[in-house]
């Protein structure tokens, strides 16, 4: 049975705390595993989460501030040590390629890693195209070049058993109807897919990290079933957020509301906040967003919600 879930490996911002590691997010998507923004300590967090280097099939780096990338050397060296054989494309802003090279070769090790750099150019590049999903990127508004990511499953069809029975389509013919769009039933009658199925929108996951509120963040998150979004500050620090080009929880909620998101995960929490502030993040985002809100906690596993209709 396929699994689609997000594993929070770290949820702090620039400085890790006793309860929040530097950033790190692992998206298990069926047989694929996409590692987003591996900050310092990600390799150890993966051990705690029961994840291995072999689980990583893709890597996406939003930008090259340390809390989003200092775990890259450990991950790559672990892949070499564990003899990961499958290729692991790693996306990152092209303007930071010098940092990628430094991190990729940070220490002396037997470099057998299958990781291949994939520098991103332009405003909205296509990053990866696989059989079951496509990852695109969008340029955000931070202090250095930063990309957010959007993983989208192709739209498909939901078969209607009652209609299939009424039209005399069963067994292998159902699969042919789904793939070919038309079959002949046992009576020799032509049956079209639209008679026995309704459109099913594909699953969408979005990852919007360090940025000021901007239209591109909304585009990346459009109709996402699950959005991971930075909410570094509470509203009382809105001026700081603007200065450093980050978002408050309320601003993150506004992005999710404008984008029509199903569930949002608030993360990238400043070290200034204590456990007693957690409820305020949820409350401030909830002032403008009526969907489900989760405040990220390290090592938490969050199932990708079911596809929404429409």
UniProtKB/TrEMBL annotation:
<feature type="binding site">
    <location>
        <position position="210"/>
    </location>
    <ligand>
        <name>Zn(2+) 2</name>
    </ligand>
</feature>
<keyword id="KW-0862">Zinc</keyword>
<keyword id="KW-0540">Nuclease</keyword>
<dbReference type="Pfam" id="PF12706">
    <property type="entry name" value="Lactamase_B_2"/>
</dbReference>
<dbReference type="Pfam" id="PF23023">
    <property type="entry name" value="Anti-Pycsar_Apyc1"/>
</dbReference>
<comment type="function">
    <text>Zinc phosphodiesterase, which displays some tRNA 3'-processing endonuclease activity. Probably involved in tRNA maturation, by removing a 3'-trailer from precursor tRNA.</text>
</comment>
<keyword id="KW-0378">Hydrolase</keyword>
<feature type="binding site">
    <location>
        <position position="68"/>
    </location>
    <ligand>
        <name>Zn(2+) 2</name>
    </ligand>
</feature>
<protein>
    <recommendedName>
        <fullName>Ribonuclease Z</fullName>
        <ecNumber>3.1.26.11</ecNumber>
    </recommendedName>
</protein>
<feature type="binding site">
    <location>
        <position position="67"/>
    </location>
    <ligand>
        <name>Zn(2+) 2</name>
    </ligand>
</feature>
<feature type="binding site">
    <location>
        <position position="268"/>
    </location>
    <ligand>
        <name>Zn(2+) 2</name>
    </ligand>
</feature>
<comment type="subunit">
    <text>Homodimer.</text>
</comment>
<comment type="similarity">
    <text>Belongs to the RNase Z family.</text>
</comment>
<dbReference type="GO" id="GO:0042781">
    <property type="term" value="F:3'-tRNA processing endoribonuclease activity"/>
</dbReference>
<keyword id="KW-0479">Metal-binding</keyword>
<dbReference type="InterPro" id="IPR013471">
    <property type="entry name" value="RNase_Z/BN"/>
</dbReference>
<keyword id="KW-0819">tRNA processing</keyword>
<feature type="binding site">
    <location>
        <position position="142"/>
    </location>
    <ligand>
        <name>Zn(2+) 1</name>
    </ligand>
</feature>
<dbReference type="InterPro" id="IPR001279">
    <property type="entry name" value="Metallo-B-lactamas"/>
</dbReference>
<dbReference type="GO" id="GO:0008270">
    <property type="term" value="F:zinc ion binding"/>
</dbReference>
<feature type="active site" description="Proton acceptor">
    <location>
        <position position="67"/>
    </location>
</feature>
<feature type="domain" description="Metallo-beta-lactamase">
    <location>
        <begin position="198"/>
        <end position="269"/>
    </location>
</feature>
<keyword id="KW-0255">Endonuclease</keyword>
<feature type="binding site">
    <location>
        <position position="65"/>
    </location>
    <ligand>
        <name>Zn(2+) 1</name>
    </ligand>
</feature>
<dbReference type="InterPro" id="IPR036866">
    <property type="entry name" value="RibonucZ/Hydroxyglut_hydro"/>
</dbReference>
<feature type="binding site">
    <location>
        <position position="63"/>
    </location>
    <ligand>
        <name>Zn(2+) 1</name>
    </ligand>
</feature>
<feature type="binding site">
    <location>
        <position position="210"/>
    </location>
    <ligand>
        <name>Zn(2+) 1</name>
    </ligand>
</feature>
């Amino acid at each position: 049975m396929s699994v689609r879930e997000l594993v929070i490996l770290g949820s702090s911002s620039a400085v890790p705390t006793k309860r929040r590691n530097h950033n790190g997010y692992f998206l298990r998507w069926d047989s694929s595993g996409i590692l987003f923004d591996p900050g310092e300590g990600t390799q150890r967090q993966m051990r705690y989460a029961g994840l291995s280097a072999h689980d990583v099939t893709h890597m996406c780096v939003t930008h090259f501030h340390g809390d989003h990338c200092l775990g890259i050397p450990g991950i790559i060296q672990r892949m070499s040590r564990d003899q990961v054989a499958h290729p692991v494309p790693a996306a990152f802003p092209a303007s930071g390629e010098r940092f990628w090279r430094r991190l990729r070769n940070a220490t002396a090790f037997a470099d057998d890693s299958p990781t291949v750099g994939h520098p991103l150019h332009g405003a909205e590049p296509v990053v990866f195209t696989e059989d079951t999903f496509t990852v695109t990127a969008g340029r955000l508004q931070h202090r250095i070049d930063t990309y957010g990511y959007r993983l989208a499953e192709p739209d498909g069809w939901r078969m209607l058993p009652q209609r299939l029975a009424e039209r005399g389509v069963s067994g292998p013919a159902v699969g042919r109807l789904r793939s070919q769009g038309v079959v002949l039933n046992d009576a020799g009658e032509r049956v079209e897919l639209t008679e026995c199925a309704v459109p099913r929108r594909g699953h969408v996951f979005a990852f919007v990290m360090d940025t000021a509120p901007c239209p591109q963040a909304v585009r990346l998150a459009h109709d996402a079933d699950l959005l991971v979004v930075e909410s570094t500050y509470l509203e009382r620090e809105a001026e700081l957020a603007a200065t450093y080009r980050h978002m408050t929880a309320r601003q993150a909620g506004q992005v999710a509301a404008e984008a029509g998101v199903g569930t949002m995960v608030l993360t990238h929490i400043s070290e200034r906040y204590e456990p007693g502030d957690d409820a305020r993040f949820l409350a401030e985002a909830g002032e403008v967003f009526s969907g489900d809100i989760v405040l990220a906690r390290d090592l938490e596993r969050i199932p990708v919600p079911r596809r929404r209709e429409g």
